[in-house]
Amino acid sequence: MTLTFAEPTADALPLTPLRPADVEGWIASAPRAQAAWVTAAGFAAGPGAVCVLPGEDGAPAGALVGLGDPARAGRERFVLARARAALPAGTWRLEGTLEPEALDEAALGWLLEGYRFDRYASQSVPPAQLVAPEGCDAARIEAIAAGEALSRDLINTPAEDMGPDQLEAAARDLASDFGAGVRVTAGDDLLAQNLPLIHTVGRASPRSPRLIDMEWGQSGPRVTLVGKGVCFDTGGLNLKPGSSMGLMKKDMGGAAAVLGLARMIMALKLPVRLRVLVPAVENSVSGASFRPGDILTSRKGLTVEINNTDAEGRLVLADALALAAEEDTDLLVSMATLTGAARVAVGPDIAPFYTDDDAFAALLAESAGAVRDPVWRMPFWEPYETMIEPGIADLDNAPKGGFAGSITAALFLRRFAEGAPRYAHFDIYGWQPTAAPARPKGGVAQGARAILQALPGALGL
Fold first, then answer.
1. Residue 240 known to be catalytic
2. Are the C-beta atoms of 428 and 257 separated by less than 8 Å?
3. What distance in Å separates the CA atoms of residue 331 and residue 350, rounded to the nearest whole number?
4. Which of 94, 98, 377, 448 has a CA between 20 and 30 Å from the CA of residue 408?
5. Which positions fall inside the Cytosol aminopeptidase domain (predicted)?
């Protein structure tokens, strides 16, 4: 799906965003007929409200769209995107003045409102088109929208058509589009290349586990992105109940997020050396399944006691993070749909993240606010380290007790990222449970836009 702005045309209709306090002034300065029309319609500039203005011939001459009360602006993102479905077909242009961040949000929201997952059934797209607003970087907004669309498509695709092999194909297609290189280690070769945890988690499935390793860029700081690619998670021998298994096609949401972010970085030609590592597996049930009570040895040499085969994401990430930390990298980021505990803590809309770097955390928070991609810092709480130390092995993959599940998972991963000078982990949900402006129900990237916004400041670009 292509999410782009319309070509400028002389007959593009004006779309004027207004706050409630601006309506009276607009009416006072408008042509008499339009002023009477807006007054009669009772347009109050509520969030996303639309009032189409009639021309002398009865055809639309423009429209007003409400931005809502600024005191309540934090309650809803991408308000202007609501207008797209309510506007008549045609080409529109924004009129009036918006602050730069609000302008970028309006432009991106408009494009994302046009996203539909139509692989299996046709989906109607709002017919109204928008000319790139003056003052926004249209190419950047389009690149971000394309990266987001890629992430959504990957998550939304059912596991039957998005197993480890198809995820590899998607990564290869992306690499081909931007001249990146890809290496893939699959099946028993994972053991030969000392990636044992990835092999163990995926060995029960007839779809071979693999590590996808993509690199792009010849100079600049090195950025390494690691994304959890569990293409379907049954829970293994600790089988999930059916109610918990229904959304497990999205358990590769971390992989989808880093591939979408990689697309943004490459499309924008950021001066970095980018590496993307995706351990792609299916956590299935068969005679080859790994078992509760098993003790596994990781790439790093740390042993892991398995107390729950449904805590498999941290295992595959562990080998990939250890590999990433073996080379010099200026920024290492992991993204994963890792724990239900994160959802209990912050709900589906916020991406919690962990880092020991206070400056980077502050930059991420600032960047997230600027691009309306909410994140929230959580602590690497060191007193909980004992919770992931079972005694008969170095680490426990599923500490008993049920407390601080997202934190203990992040502490587990940090053990394998040691050596990277700057590490951040995102425990994302990857799913929009109810439709919202610019975000239909279904797969969604979280944290990617915030990271993209933060990269120049974090790396001195």
1. yes
2. yes
3. 22
4. 448
5. 308-315
CA-CA distance, 79 to 267, in Å (whole number)?
Answer: 27
pLDDT in tens, 74-102: 888 999 999 999 999 999 999 988 999 99
Q: Distance (Å, rounded) from C-alpha 425 to C-alpha 382?
A: 16
Cα separation, 147 vs 141, in Å, equals 10
**Which residue reads 């319309």 in tokens?**
6
Token digits of residue 437: 């402006």
pTM of the complete model: 0.97
Sorted by where each starts, the structural domains of the chain and their CATH numbers stand as: 13-136 (3.40.220.10), 141-459 (3.40.630.10)
* Amino acid 1: pLDDT: 67
- Residues whose CB is less than 8 angstroms from the CB of residue 326 and which lie 6 or more positions away in sequence, other chains included: 419
Adjacent-strand bridge partners of 14: 93
3-state secondary structure at position 100: helix
* Segments of 257-324 assigned E as strands: 273-283, 295-297, 303-305
Nearest-angstrom CA–CA distance, 119 and 161: 11
Determine which one of 172, 240, 377, 422 is catalytic: 240
Tens of pLDDT, residues 111-154: 999 999 999 999 999 999 999 999 999 999 999 999 999 999 99
> Number of C-alpha atoms within 13 angstroms, CB side, residue 96?
22
What are 402-406's contacts with CB under 8 Å, separation 24+? 404/341, 405/339, 405/340, 405/341, 405/342, 406/338, 406/339, 406/341, 406/342, 406/345, 406/352, 406/378
